[in-house]
UniProtKB/TrEMBL annotation:
Pfam families, per database record: Beta_helix
Taxonomic superkingdom: Bacteria
InterPro entries the UniProt entry points to: Beta_helix (IPR039448), PbH1 (IPR006626), Pectin_lyas_fold (IPR012334), Pectin_lyase_fold/virulence (IPR011050)
Residues annotated as domain Right handed beta helix: 201-361
Protein name (database record): Right-handed parallel beta-helix repeat-containing protein
Length: 560
């Protein structure tokens, strides 16, 4: 009782303090036409005019920066050193005149032409940016700032702790550093990440060992037509960008990758759509990029996304795992028509997996055609871990219950470096109609595909359309396989339901996935999955492929 009596007044003080904090919060209104920086800015009738005015404000937790909807603000919105709280963040968002119909609420636009960023959030915490449009196409008559242009940049320097940032319902497009008509040299696309000046959609950058960026959410946003990457996280070897959620976004026609992350830990990427990464429809674009790729990343879950039509002369898979990663798992994703391929895992990776995904006609690129310097591949395990480092294949890689469809007019290419250790390939459907062949990994130094015996390979219980669906000279060969047509509802389609198998005799009775010998860790969230691609419960052992069908009636088949 004594303890409770002491806590009650303390709690009361906390409630009063929190309420006072909220009561002090202010709204600051901005209008580029009707505003004046000499106004109070405290109501819609007396708004400020320019985004630069924000630097003069003493912002408090719970304050709101409100930009007039349907209006264009030229310049950059910079927020440096702000500290909010989880209960009282700073809000940056659009507002509309009272009575504006919801269907006519066009978000405010920031035009960052000639400026380094549309929105800069530097060394700040607990900030929410919502319902905004951001563009930045070239520099015009203004002397350009910096060497890159970013729609939204979240930056940590020194020993700053950047935390609790939410970007929600943003529309970022036409972000280019260079002016229209600028043409990149043919060799630029062959560089590792581009060497010239580009535009990016959303970037998180932390290159300080003493700083941390964490608890950032990028939600429900549309990013299109930027000259390099749509969403990019750049941490360092200490993995100083952590606990990030990227969900519900649409990224399309970006010149580089759709989503890319380096030096990160604890990232969830879900329910996003990425299409036409590596776009070349503007000469200012890089022209190469996977839908998503990771480097130096730990504990990343990539699920329920669509990766489609990635383009480029190298890489440009639906989603690939570059070197120096661990515990990266891709599941429940649809990957289709990506030039570089479906499965790509490079060197010095540990305990990574592709499971319960559907791949349609991935890996159609042909080396030597249209400037391509890598083959497209259905399945690629590489030993590459940097140009100057010895090759080291991935360790403990799991590939199970994927459905892979490759049309008759494509050649399915397989590359496996013999330095790979610990490979599980089970319960997959390889519906490869045409030819398949083994190829080299074709990087700076090709993968070693000699026939030396590899360690700890479990390659069992997969369904192949025919005996030539896996190359006979590949370094690893399947055992205890099944052969035949799974009877897809609509092979070649782009809906997951198109790959419901109807040949139940071939696609039932998969095996329980074992942990590889010598692997002490397994996978994040375990090896056993509770649901298949479509959310059907898996009872007992799984089936074959990404969709498990225990019973399919004639009526339901006709409906499909």
């Amino acid at each position: 009782m004594t303890t409770n009596r002491k806590l009650i007044p303390l709690l009361g003080i906390l409630i009063v303090f929190t309420s006072l904090q909220s009561a002090k919060a202010k709204d600051y209104f901005f209008h580029p036409q009707k505003g004046n920086d000499q106004n109070s800015g405290l109501n819609a009738g007396h708004p400020f005019q320019s985004l630069s005015k924000i630097k003069d404000l003493t912002l408090q937790p719970g304050d709101r920066i409100l930009l007039a909807g349907g209006e264009v603000f030229r310049g950059t919105l910079e927020l440096v050193g702000f500290k909010g709280s989880s209960n009282h963040p700073l809000f940056i968002q659009s507002y509309w005149d009272e009575g504006t119909d919801s269907g006519q609420r066009i978000p405010a636009k920031i035009d960052a032409k000639g400026f380094a960023n549309g929105v800069l959030i530097e060394n700040s915490s607990f900030v929410q940016v919502r319902n905004m449009q951001i563009t930045g196409d070239g520099y015009g008559e203004k002397l350009p700032e910096g060497t890159m242009r970013v729609g939204v940049l979240i930056l940590a320097t020194g020993n700053a702790q950047v935390k609790g940032i939410t970007l929600d319902s943003l529309r970022i497009s036409e972000v280019f550093f260079e002016e229209k008509g600028f043409i990149r040299g043919a060799q630029e696309v062959k560089s590792a990440n581009g060497t010239q000046r580009y535009g990016w959609g959303i970037r998180l950058i932390n290159q300080s060992d003493a700083a941390m960026i964490e608890e950032v959410k990028i939600l429900n946003s549309q990013i299109s037509n930027v000259s390099h990457t749509g969403i990019k996280l750049t941490g360092n070897q200490s993995q100083n960008i952590r606990r990030i959620t990227i969900a519900g976004n649409k990224v399309t026609k970006v010149g580089g990758p759709g989503i890319q992350m380096s030096g990160v830990k604890f990232v969830h990427v879900t329910d996003n759509e990425v299409a036409y990464s590596g776009s070349t429809d503007d000469s200012r674009k890089w022209g190469r990029g996977s839908g998503l790729w990771t480097w130096g990343a730990s504990n990343v879950l990539i699920e329920k996304n669509k990766f489609m039509y990635a383009n480029g002369p190298g890489d440009s898979a639906g989603a690939h795992i570059d070197y120096n990663c661990d515990n990266v798992v891709l599941q429940y994703n649809l990957s289709a028509h990506n030039a570089g391929g479906f499965i790509e895992v490079l060197g010095n990776n540990y305990n990574c997996a592709y499971r319960y995904n559907i791949s349609v006609n991935d890996g159609h690129r042909i080396k030597g055609q249209d400037g391509a310097f890598q083959e497209g591949k259905t399945f690629w395990l590489s030993g590459y871990q940097g140009e100057k480092k010895p090759r080291k294949g991935p360790v403990n890689s799991y590939f199970y219950n994927n459905t892979i469809y490759v049309a008759a007019d494509l050649v399915s290419k397989i590359a496996v470096d013999n330095g790979s250790k610990g490979i599980l390939i089970a319960n997959n459907i390889f519906h490869i109609i045409g030819k398949s062949e083994q190829v080299a990994g074709d990087q700076y130094v090709p993968d070693d595909i000699s026939s030396r015996v590899m360690e700890e390979v479990f390659f069992k219980n997969n369904l192949f359309l025919h005996e030539n669906s896996w190359p006979s000279n590949a370094i690893i060969q399947a055992q205890e396989s099944r052969f035949g047509d799974p009877g897809f509802v609509n092979p070649g389609g782009l809906n997951p339901e198109d790959y419901i198998p109807t040949n139940l005799a071939l696609t039932q009775n998969g095996i329980e996935i074992p942990q590889l010998p010598g692997d002490r860790f397994g996978l994040i969230e375990g090896l056993k999955i509770k649901k298949d691609f479509l959310g059907n419960l898996i009872e007992g052992n799984p089936g074959i492929g990404a969709i498990q069908v225990l019973k399919l009636s004639t009526e339901s088949l006709k409906a499909k």
